[in-house]
Each structure stands twice: as C-alpha cells, then as structure tokens.
C-alpha cells in the first residue's frame, strides 16, 4: 500500500502520464494480491528451501530451515535426519549427537537405520571407537552384514590387526562375506606387515651417529643436515682447543655442537613418532573411505 501511495506522489511531482500511472498501480495491486495469497513460510515452501540449501552445501543455513520445518511438522523424519547431517557436515559433532538424543530420548540403540548410521559415522569421526562398537552391538536396525563391517572397521581404526583378522575369520565361518570385507581384510593384512619405527631406536642411532636416527625414519634431508652441522661444529671445537686451548671460540663452537647434537637426538625420537602417525593416519583414511564411500 505504501508503494502505491509513493507512485501517486511521483505522478503529482514528476508529471507521470495518468495512463502509465494507472498501469503501474494495477500491476502492483495484482502482485500484492498474489503475494498475499501465498504463504512463503509454510511447511511446503520451507521444506523446498531447506532442501535447496542442503543440496548447495549451505549447511549453516539449511540446519536453521530444517529446524523450523521439524517444528512445524514433528513427524517429518527426513527434516530431522537433515538436521543431524547438516551439523555433521559442519563438523559440529557435539550438536549432531545432542539432536539425535533429543529425537530419540528413550533408547538411541533402537533408532531407525539412517539415524543409527549417522550416529556411528559421528562416533568414527570423533575416534570414539569403543562407543561405536558397543552401539553397533546393541543396534538392530542396521542390517547384520553392515554392522559387522563397522565392527571390523572399529578394530582396524584402533590398529588391532590380529584381533581384526580373527574377528573376520570367525565371522566368515558361519556367515556370508559382506560386501566390504575383502577391502577391509586387505587393510588388516597390510597392518600386520607394517614395520613401525621405534622412537628409542631412532634416538639411540642419532646418539651414536648424528642424523642416523632421522635417516632411520626416512627423513634423509634432516638426517644429512644434522650430520653435517654437528660434525662441522665438533671439528671447529676440537681444532680451536688443539691450537689455542680452551678459549671463547672453543666454548662457543662447543656449545653449538652440543645443542645441535642434543636437538638431533630429541628430533629423531619425534621423527619416529611422526613416521608412525603418518602410517596410522593413512590407514584410518583408507578404512573410513571403505566404510563411508557410499554414505
């Protein structure tokens, strides 16, 4: 209505022809009627808009819309599922679990399959593998073969290679092989063959020959650098003492040599841990890729 009054004011002050003014007013009036005839915030339109946001990966906005849709229609299970998924895609696992517990306050283990899969996925992302294993044991809505794939996965994610292979072998005696068991079993056999680097060995090697602990952990560049630096300053220290006795230069060079030598031992210990962590992270990514590539 304010817009129509504004148009009439323009006609009086800007000398808009009456016929054009009449057409503009009619157009605005019809648009106003059509707009009033639609409830843009009703359940159907809100659902469509929420789906559009979710499809375009605007999860921070989609979760707000789905919350409103769920409030308008509490029986809409898809909206509830999308709320949990939106939080998971935002890596807000705490809120995702809170909403799941709100939706199923009595017994989470009996929640529908899609919600149960979401819960397991979230627990995997949080590295709560024991909780995931216990939940899978109690849940009956996920089919048996998939539950056992996840059980297998929880053991692999904890690097329990022998326990994982034993679990798979015992399961296959009485049951048909699930779809993803071959890929998971390959990871388990690879895990058994992994040769982890021992941090104390890396430190000992570098204590004997500077840089050798880094070489042991496949860090050739740092290993060679440490060897050259420690050797160079050790020689400068020795040469300074030999020619001039104990003086400022010999103390200075000696301090640097000892500092690099000590740091080289500590760094080798850390390098071994880093090497092992990279292997574990690669395996964890591989396992999650197998389990969740279709979800």
Notes on the structure:
79% of the residues lie in helices and 0% in strands. With 295 residues, it is mostly helical. Among the domains are: 2-36, no CATH class; 42-123, Serine Threonine Protein Phosphatase 5, Tetratricopeptide repeat (Alpha Horseshoe), CATH 1.25.40; 199-285. Residues 1-11 and 25-37 have low confidence and may be disordered.
By DSSP, the count of extended strands is: 0
Radius of gyration: 33 Å
Gap from first CA to last CA: 51 Å
Number of discrete helical segments: 15
Shape: elongated
Give the DSSP E fraction (strand runs of 2 or more residues). under 5%
What is the averaged pLDDT score? 84
Low-confidence stretches: 1-11, 25-37
* N-to-C SSE string, H for helix and E for strand: HHHHHHHHHHHHHHH
Structural class: mainly alpha
Percent of residues in helices comes to: over 70%
Sheet with the most strands?
none
Summarize the structure.
This protein has 295 residues and is mostly helical. The chain has helices spanning 2-14, 18-36, 43-55, 59-72, 77-89, 93-103, 113-125, 129-138, 144-157, 161-174, 181-193, 199-208, 212-216, 220-244, 248-292. The radius of gyration is 33 Å and the shape is elongated.
Keywords for this entry:
79% helix; Serine Threonine Protein Phosphatase 5, Tetratricopeptide repeat; 295 residues
